[in-house]
Amino acid sequence: MARVRPKGTKAFTLIWAGQVVSLVGSAMTAFGIGVWAWQVTGRATALSIVAFFSFTPIIIMSPIAGALVDRWNRKVTMGVSDVVSGLGTVIMLVLYATGHLQIWHLCVVGALSGTFQAFQWPAYQAAISTMMSRDRYGRAAGMISLAQSGSGILAPIIAGAVVVMWGLVPIFLFDIASFCIAVVLLLAVDVPSPSRSQAGEEARGSFWKETVFGWRYIAARRPLLLLQLSFFASNLIASVCMTLWTPMILARTSGSPTTLGIINTVSAVGGVVGGTLMTVWGGPRRKVYGVLWGMVSVSALGIMLMGFGRALPIWLVSGFLGSLIIPFLNGCNDVIWQTKVPHDVQGKVFGTRLMIAQISVPIAMLTAGPLADIVFEPRMMPGGILAGVFGPLVGVGHGAGMALMFVLFGGMALLVSVASFMVRDIRDVEILIPDYVPPEEETPGAAISVPVEANADN
């Protein structure tokens, strides 16, 4: 008798478990590489450049990847993405073990991995819609956040200790093994193909037509477009600070990877708590409130408070609270899109959605380092032109310039978040855009619910 592959919630849980292990390995590698780059260069610019080259391909490739995700088998797509990411770690292991690893190598490997990671997110998000019932989307989003945050609890502390004692080789080896586990569990389950929809039929055609379909779909639905543009603005501002997270803490703690590891771990605990609550609860009935209040809270507590802090306790509180809120913010946003967009075009739409929200991040990554090293850090040293004004708020000396950036940019993110509350199209996105109901869930005799263009006057 042929073995029946797990389906539905059980299949999703197995994929999720593989991602947990894989994310732990990736988090350890990212932490170790960040510490190594800081030790080699001592400048925030090096870390921001590596982040830029790792993240930019994800943004550039997202619409193309989204179109291909809807054409290809989604399980195979996720598996190939994991394999190529693992190969990137193998390359770094060989270069490091032979004493040839340099900063530019991290940029090249990051660009390679990022290109294929562009396929991972839309494929994974679209697969959830076909594997889970709509009433479980919120809990699935909570599990994803739980995996992302949980990977950071032990990873920073373990990676920090391993880097000091043995270097990066053990970290790379564990990361490679974690990718293998994720692929094996993915191959063991069934990921169903999406049913056909009216939007899917409209999207069919040349590869170029399918690539730009996501843009046309979102642009025709003003509430969804404005919701995503608010993410664009928030990410542009907040990503400047997140790029400087590691160098700011290292600069203010005399380069202590142990302190950085503790802060990252406590922040991850906050994310785990938030992810657990989202998994159990599923988020508020009006998911958009989870998004908007989440933006406000993260800006104030997760960014500004981190900049105001000058000692470990404040950093721990800020990291914990900011990470606690993020699962609700991202999870509620994911549920809105999974509920509104037909399953067979989610790859295209989600790829474009990712590009709109995150295209600002590479800009922030590329500018954060030079802004810190050239503009803010020198002027926040004792006697600097900004030290006299802002010193009482964030202190002076190494790391104070980056702390000031957290406060200023976090304040701008807070203003964007509050402004989003005032836009009716964003507040009422769940009312203005009807839910998509797949054919297998339709009630006989009921009207077919197909997403339509939102009234531009709303």
Largest sheet: none
What is the distance, rounded to the nearest whole angstrom, between the alpha carbons of the first and last residues?
A: 57 Å
Helix content: over 70%
Give me the count of strands: 0
CATH fold naming: Growth Hormone, Chain: A
Q: What is the highest CATH level, the class? A: Mainly Alpha
> Helix/strand/pairing class, anyone?
mainly alpha
CATH architecture descriptor name: Up-down Bundle
Which ranges are low-confidence, i.e. pLDDT below 50, for 5 or more consecutive residues?
Answer: 444-458
> Radius of gyration, rounded?
22 Å
How many structural domains does the protein architecture include? Answer: 1
Tally of helical segments: 19
Give the overall shape, derived from the CA principal axes.
Answer: globular
Averaged pLDDT, please?
Answer: 83
Q: Strand-residue fraction?
A: under 5%
Order of H and E elements: HHHHHHHHHHHHHHHHHHH
The CATH H-level superfamily is MFS general substrate transporter like domains
